[in-house]
Amino acid sequence: MATTAPNVYNQRTVVRRTRWQKFLANKKLWRGVTAILCTLVLWEIGSRWDEWFGFRLPFIGFIPPPSDVMVAWLEVLPKIGYWQSWYLSFKRVLAGFLSAMLLGIPFGLALAVNRYFRDIFFPPFEVLRPIPPLAWVPASLIFWPTNEMSIAFVTFLGAFFTIVINVLGGARSIDISYLRAAQSMGATQLDMFWRIVLPGTLPSIFTGAAVGMGITWEVVLAAEMISGGGTQAGGGLGFFIWNSYMGGSLEQIVVGMISIGIAGYLSSSAIRYLGTVCMPWRRLF
Amino acid sequence: MTVTPASSGEHEAQGPASGKGKLELRNVNKGYGEAWERQEVLTHMSLTIAPGDLTAVIGPSGCGKSTLVDLIAGFERPDSGEILLNGEPVTGPAHDRMVVFQETALLPWLTAYQNVAFGPKLRGDLKGEALDAEINRLLDKVGLAEFKDKYPIQLSGGMQRRAELARAMINNPLIMIMDEPFRGLDAMTRELMQEFFLKLFEETRRTNLFVTSELDEAIFLADRLIVLSNRPTSVRETIEIGLPRPREFHMLSSPEAFKYKRQAMEVLHEEAMRGFTRSGDQQAFLDAYRKGDEAQSDG
Ligand SMILES: Nc1ncnc2c1ncn2[C@@H]1O[C@H](COP(=O)(O)OP(=O)(O)O)[C@@H](O)[C@H]1O
Ligand SMILES: [Mg+2]
């Protein structure tokens, strides 16, 4: 003992942990896992109540227990149709979301930096903005030649307004002393746009993107439920749920719902990850 | 690219003569708002800032100190009057006048190093290794060599102020304008920053306009102290601060410093009273008025 003790002090090498070890040592992860497990256990107990005591709990008693849902899920997992639903929904979300970003960011920035542009385009924008995306569905079904196009359009609208408002607000709230400092140092109008306004708006762009992505999912699924059963544009996770409803499979409805939850989580994680990559100074908050 | 004729000393101002501008304000007026909402902020403002001097400007809060800074920096135009830098009229912002703002204006998305590099990179007047060497020299000078790759949010308040000093200095301005630069720092950091800034100034003696609302700070740093009146604001008093350089903190407790302090305090107090009685507190005004009457009839 006495001989080994000094060695312990000498071996003060820092043990480098692997990423995986760090991941597993993360308390946040374990709290999350515990919370999900607890929810599943309560849900299981709640929905099996009927079989145990003879009367049903309101709400939760009518939902199939997670074990049954798991069985239903395992059934659909190998089927190509289930993955096709994922693919179709994702494709629509991405199409609507990306086109909203592509048009919304320049439009929002133009509103922010040019007074004349703002005076002309902001009023009609503000009139159209409060109209909920789903209220556009009937009109766009009529206007656009295919169902697929009208779904894409409505999806686009859902994200577009949110992104524009965020970009506009973000760009307008840039500290004026940043612009003044840059001006003093010899920045041209173009320099100020690229070097101050754009990076200064980046946080708001990502906020808009995160909120917009959420809205896009809502809209796509609702649009799929409304029009997905038609002949031209089918499938998608929204239609998957609708189809399960028509087929009377309660377990599959829940499978569809959880799939949507996972899809939404994956999308917003992707945006958050992109945000930390594009804005390293924000990681430090 | 704004290259003004006045910015003669823009390339590496190693020579002691460069970076010293003379600034003159002649009868400058500035107000905000239209018609009945109009508020005159500065009236008949005339002052001269001698080359190589540190001129402190002190005045009550809201009297228009930042407005004065905006005019000199060229962010705002005077309604009438002239602002001359080395004899040339000021027409807009340019890198011959650098402002260190009241709140930090470091760009949050750039590291300390990138922030300092911002100006020269924009203009392209300093490039490659020469630029790199100059940035490192300045960051070292302000004690941030180890922190050059940190973002502003990772720096303490004092460090941010020093990074901002480095960012201004690399542009070799003829005059540095500081708008209450140490406001918001805690007392300890503030004192350290005053000492640090003073050393920096005494080394280079670059013309400096230092706006503050702290009398001790002004007397400690300045060659000349300009006391502003209440709004509409003009120069109320100019006090030459004759304390020897290099300055030390203990000089603030010398009888001489005390004399300057009392002189400035009297003016400031008078102005504060004037602003107070005029600013809508009618009862206070009437009381003061009556007292004045009584004093006259007594005497
Ligand atoms: N852009 C502006 N528009 C209207 N009023 C302004 C503007 N800038 C400053 N003022 C007014 O001018 C006065 C002086 O402000 P400021 O120069 O910031 O004072 P100080 O820096 O001495 O505290 C204030 O009453 C403020 O309301
Ligand atoms: Mg101010």
Descriptive account of the structure:
With 285 residues, chain A is mainly α. Chain A has 2 domains: 17-63, no CATH class; 68-284, MetI-like fold (Orthogonal Bundle), CATH 1.10.3720. In chain A, 78% of the residues lie in helices and 0% in strands. Chain A has helices at residues 4-10, 19-25, 27-53, 66-76, 80-113, 115-128, 137-143, 147-172, 176-184, 189-227, 237-247, 250-278. The longest helix of chain A has 39 residues, at 189-227. Chain A is globular. Mean pLDDT of chain A is 85; it is low at 1-10. Chain B has a domain at 41-96 and 206-299: P-loop containing nucleotide triphosphate hydrolases (Rossmann fold). Chain B is built from 8 helices and 10 strands. Chain B has 299 residues and is of the alpha/beta class. Chain B has a 6-stranded mixed β-sheet, sandwiched between helices. Mean pLDDT of chain B is 85; it is low at 1-17. Classes of the chains: A mainly alpha (285), B alpha/beta (299). Chains A and B meet through helix 9 and helix 10 of A and strand 6 and helix 2 of B. Residues 32, 41, 59, 61-67 of chain B line the site of adenosine-5'-diphosphate.
Main sheet makeup of chain A:
none
Query: In the CATH hierarchy, what is the class of the domain at 41-96 and 206-299 in chain B?
Result: Alpha Beta
CATH topology of the largest domain in chain A: MetI-like fold
Of all chain pairs, the largest interface belongs to:
A-B, 23 and 29 residues
What is the CATH domain class of the largest domain in chain A? Mainly Alpha
Overall mean pLDDT of chain B stands at 85
The helix count of chain A comes to 12
Report the helical percentage of chain A. Answer: over 70%
Structural class of chain A: mainly alpha
CATH architectural type of the domain at 41-96 and 206-299 in chain B: 3-Layer(aba) Sandwich
